[in-house]
Amino acid sequence: MPRGTMPRRPSRSGRQDKVSSIPLRAKVQPITPALKKVSKGAATISARTIAPRKPAPQPAQPATTSSRKATIVAKRYNPLAPARVSEILQRLDEHYPAATCALHHNSAWELLVATILSAQCTDVRVNLVTPILFQKYPTPEAFASLQPEELEPDIRSTGFFRNKSKSVVGAARKVISDFGGEVPRNMDELLQIPGVARKTANVVLGSWYRIADGVVVDTHVQRISRRLELTKNEDPRKIEQDLMQVVPRDKWILFSHQIIHHGRAICIARRPKCADCPLENLCHAADKTWSTVEIHQTAKP
Question: Could you give the count of Cα atoms lying within 13 Å of 9 in the half-sphere of its Cβ?
Answer without folding.
Answer: 3
